[in-house]
Amino acid sequence: MEIKIKKAKLTKGGTVEATYIDADGNEMTIKGKNIAHADLKNRLAALIPYFAELTEQKEADKFDWDNPNKEENFDLLRRLDVTGVSMGGDDSCPIATLSGRRTLMSSKVLNLNTPPIDIESDDMAWERAEEFRFAIDAFFYEVAQYVTERKWALKQAEITFDNEDDPFANADAPSDTVPITCENDSPTPHAGQVA
Prior knowledge:
This protein has helices spanning 38-45, 48-54, 71-76, 129-148, and strands at residues 4-10, 16-21, 27-31, 80-90, 93-103, 109-113, 117-118. It is extended and about 90 Å long. Strands 1, 2, 3, 4, 5, 6 and 7 form a seven-stranded antiparallel beta sheet that branches. Helix 1 runs antiparallel to helix 4 (129-148). The protein has four helices and seven strands; from the N terminus they run E-E-E-H-H-H-E-E-E-E-H. By secondary structure, it is an alpha+beta fold. It has one domain. The termini are far apart. Strand 5 and strand 6 form a beta hairpin.
């Protein structure tokens, strides 16, 4: 099933909320109850450097774009998160906006949005526009997988104790009990024994 994502965000609980156009042209909104897969979270995290640059965060100047997976880059951006992406405009002029937050030194959270970015503009001066569009498309692909293919994180299933291979499954409690005695004490009754 082919869908077109218009906006998507990761909730505090780790689930996905998304608005999309389905194959019949209907606009649908889903509030998922299943935890997002790590691939989706990683694609959202890949948008953080663009978010830093577009919101003119101090870390943007120090980010190494030639080696984006360097450990120093992860440390540099640890106080920033991207929580969602919105795509507005139309097919000929798509406009992207990232939503996110900065965790301040006081541990308080500052919510931020990027300015709307025309990602198909030929005269756009931003040198990372094409990579930015690819990163958004990769995130929206994972959101579509969440919605249509049920690509979710695995939850711990219930543990059942009915196991055919359990060697103790048919074991009974011992029929005779042995009293436990301590020095200079009288025998202590065992479970099921009356004193």
